[in-house]
C-alpha cells in the first residue's frame, strides 16, 4: 500500500510539474505579446473582471474540497454505489452554482463602471465593457457544468490524468492566442479562444472520468444518504467561512486596487501576481496529488505517525518557500525590467512586501493539506472570518485614512496572515488532528524564518556587486539559487527531515518507488 501511495504521489506530482513548466513558459510568452500588442490597461481589465468573478465564485463555498474528502473512504473501500451517490449530488450542486454565478454576473453588468477609479485609463478602442465582461462570465460559468468530475480523478490518485488534460488545452489555448494577438490584435478573439478551450478541456476530462469509472452511469438515479449529506453540509458550512476569507484576500483586495488606485496600477500588479501565482500553482500542483495520498495515509496510520509525516512534509514545504522567496524577492524586479520594461517595475519595498506575503502564504500549505485530508473544516471555520475582518479593516484604513497606494492592500494582507493564518491553522491541526501541543511547530516557523533572513541578507549583499543587465541577471539568479541551499544545508543536514528529503530525491532519481 505504501509503495503504491508513493508511486502515485510521485507520478502525479511529476506530471503536474511538467505540465506547469510548459504552461509557465507559454504564459510568459502570451503575456509579453499581450502587453506589446494591446497594452497594460487591458491587463488591468483582465484582472478586474477575473476578480469580480472570483468574488461571485464564493457560491462554491468550498464544496469541491469537502467532496474530495468525502470520497477518500468509499474510493479506498471500492464502494462504487456510495461514490456514485456522492457524484450525483456533486453534479446537481455544481450545476446550481454555475447557474447562480451566471445570473448574478448578469445582474452586475449595469454597475461595472463603479469598480473603475478613472474611466479615462480605459483604451479608446476597447469594445463595450459589458461585452468583454460577458465573455469572462461565460468562461467562469461553463466550467461548473463539467469540471466537477476532476475531483473524482484527483481523489482516486489519478491527478496525472487531470494534469495532462490541462497541459494539452493550455498549449492549444496559448498557441491560438499568440496567433490571434499577432494577426488580429483583438481582445474579443483572445477571450473567445479561452472560452472554447475551457469548455472542451472540461468536457473531455468529464468523458475520461466516465471511462475510468463506468459504474457512475449505472447508478445515475442513486440518491445521497442522509448521513453523507449531513456530513457534507456541516463541512461545507464550516468551509464557507474559509472561502469567504479567500475571496476577500484575493478578490476584494484587487477590486480595491482597481477602485482606489487605478486600472493601470492593477495591470502592473497583475504582472507580479503572474510571477507569484505561477510559483504558487507549481506548489499546489505538486502538493495536490500528495493530498490524496495524505488522506489515504491518515486512514491507515496513528496520530504519532501522521505527526512525524507532517514534520517531514513541512520541512520540504519550508525549503521551497524559502528558496522561492529569495529568488522572487531579489530577481522579480530585474526580470520584469528585462522582459517588459522599466514602466512595469514597482519599488523594491513594494516588491519585498509582495514576495514576503507569498512566503507567509506558502508556509501555510502543509497545515492546509492536513486540514483538508483530516476533514478539520469545522474547528477552523471562524478563522477566515477574523482574517477577512482584519484584512478589510487595515486595507480601508491605509487607503482612505493614510492615502497609501497599492501597498495598502499588500501590507493589510501580511497583517491578516500574521494575526490569524500563521498560527491558527497549525493550532487546529495539532489540537484536533494529532492531539498534541503546537508549540514545537511555532518554534520551527521561527527557525525557518531566521534561515530566510540570513539567506536574504547574504544574497542581497552578494548580488549588489553585479549589474542589472542580462549577464548580471544570470549571475544574480545563480546566487539566489545557491545561497539558501547552502544555509539550509548547514543548519539542517543532520535532521531526520533533511535525510528523508534526500532519500525521497534519490528514490525519484533511481525510480525506486
Automatic annotation (TrEMBL):
<protein>
    <submittedName>
        <fullName>Transporter</fullName>
    </submittedName>
</protein>
<feature type="transmembrane region" description="Helical">
    <location>
        <begin position="344"/>
        <end position="360"/>
    </location>
</feature>
<keyword id="KW-1003">Cell membrane</keyword>
<feature type="transmembrane region" description="Helical">
    <location>
        <begin position="441"/>
        <end position="461"/>
    </location>
</feature>
<dbReference type="GO" id="GO:0005886">
    <property type="term" value="C:plasma membrane"/>
</dbReference>
<feature type="transmembrane region" description="Helical">
    <location>
        <begin position="21"/>
        <end position="45"/>
    </location>
</feature>
<feature type="transmembrane region" description="Helical">
    <location>
        <begin position="189"/>
        <end position="205"/>
    </location>
</feature>
<feature type="transmembrane region" description="Helical">
    <location>
        <begin position="93"/>
        <end position="116"/>
    </location>
</feature>
<keyword id="KW-1133">Transmembrane helix</keyword>
<keyword id="KW-0812">Transmembrane</keyword>
<keyword id="KW-0472">Membrane</keyword>
<feature type="transmembrane region" description="Helical">
    <location>
        <begin position="473"/>
        <end position="492"/>
    </location>
</feature>
<feature type="transmembrane region" description="Helical">
    <location>
        <begin position="244"/>
        <end position="269"/>
    </location>
</feature>
<feature type="transmembrane region" description="Helical">
    <location>
        <begin position="281"/>
        <end position="299"/>
    </location>
</feature>
<feature type="transmembrane region" description="Helical">
    <location>
        <begin position="51"/>
        <end position="72"/>
    </location>
</feature>
<feature type="transmembrane region" description="Helical">
    <location>
        <begin position="319"/>
        <end position="338"/>
    </location>
</feature>
<dbReference type="InterPro" id="IPR050833">
    <property type="entry name" value="Poly_Biosynth_Transport"/>
</dbReference>
<feature type="transmembrane region" description="Helical">
    <location>
        <begin position="128"/>
        <end position="146"/>
    </location>
</feature>
